[in-house]
Amino acid sequence: MKGGSAAKLIVDALLQRFLPLARRRIETAQAQDGQYLRPSDPAYEQVLDSLAMIARHTPVPLLEALLRWRESESPKGANDASTFQKKLAVECIFCSACIRFVECCPQEGLTEKLWSGLENFVFDWLINADRVVSQVEYPSLVDLRGLLLDLVAQLLGALSRIRFSSVTERFFMELNTRRIDTSMARSETLSIVNGMRYLKLGVKTEGGLNASASFVAKANPLNRAPHKRKSELYHALCNMLSNILAPLEDGGRNQWPPSGVHNALALWYEAVGRIRMQLIHWMDKQSKHIAVGYPLVTLLLCLGDPQIFHSNLSPHMEQLYKLLKDKNHRFMALDCLHRVLRFYLSVHAASQPPNRIWDYLDSVTSQLLAAVRKGTLTQDVQHDKLVEFCVTIAEHNLDFAMNHMILELLKQDSSPSEAKVIGLRALLDIVMSPSSPYVGLEIFKGQDIGHYIPKVRAAIESILRSCHRVYSQALLTSSKTTIGKIFFQVYEGLRARITLL
């Protein structure tokens, strides 16, 4: 059997599985949230896995088949909500398939025409989404359109893995052609900028890091000066760069700094350092930029020159402590503090003296505990972030985390009930970690800090007694429905999970 015939048979077999699943998803797609278009059922996931596997070996016939399917399923004619709903559903399915395809397809697997066609598909939707499906005329399709644009952005990110120069050049070209300040040009510019948020930066080779440094320098949010509504574009570019840089920082010691790219790294450090200083001056002038500026400044500090990182770490944290007291910036400050502390522990702590590490940990935990005791951290997302702090510190120094964070949160003092819930959640996450070779509280014995076991048990028993006492009194005077949410979290949650500890 010839290679071409074999490839066709393989693609046809896959399409026989793909087509009915895709058709069912189109028929059941709901404009309200697009939930039926997300890869949620095992059969659809299996088909996408098969599609990715075939993309490695016979990419051209597979992509051509997907393009034919898209063309045949896209509705023609009437311009009504039902027609546009089906069109968006088809595009969502096509786009999700293309993401898996591009993630596995080798660069040489497609012709330039096919690669360019995928790029054009991405930018056409980013630019023309409002022309195709107006948010004003079809408000019921806003969520489904939003899902499609997120998938389009993911596809652009996948394309950037192997066509970085082409994608970024197109990005800057599209921005430059929209310098004329009209409402339509602004809307298109913001859509294009938002669509770049999944861009993948190459850092493992000199060439890749050079290209990444060049992109970051050109994407400096303050490089562009529209005549009207400057902040809107500046903020969009800040958010874009934060999303692009975050995966590098998240990689920690395993990814940053890259090795064997000394010359390119120097250019990178210069670029991110320059942008960081400009953003700091920009935020100093107007506080309205802080919410988008500080997350980016934090990332630029982490990914910049190590000497500059160490010399600026303390003042940066002090500024974040101040922002922690501002209710408008509280969660942003928490997130930035966690990000910079995690990066410090992951990337730099191994080369730092123990007393310096202790000072940083003590500084952060003191600020967090003070905020908890004052009752200023009241939102669920803030509590989630505090749990992350505890786990991050425990991964580096379990002894410190227990003595200076967990047991402090579990204390039976005037602290709000939320503190105990946070402490218990963090403790459960630590002792039930899938990566731990120990079960429950045995993790402390494994790290030669078994003396915490009786302290933890005593703290939990004290909380249980207190909860039981208050719970019993409350039932005498109130119905269960009038007992507060936090109380039930503490009491019922403790009763259900105490056996795990």
UniProtKB/TrEMBL annotation:
Biological processes annotated in GO: cell morphogenesis
Gene Ontology terms: cellular component: cell cortex; site of polarized growth
InterPro entries, per the entry: Cell_morpho_N, Furry/Tao3/Mor2
Domain Cell morphogenesis protein N-terminal residue range list: 85-433
Name recorded for this polypeptide: Cell morphogenesis protein N-terminal domain-containing protein
Organism (species): Linum tenue
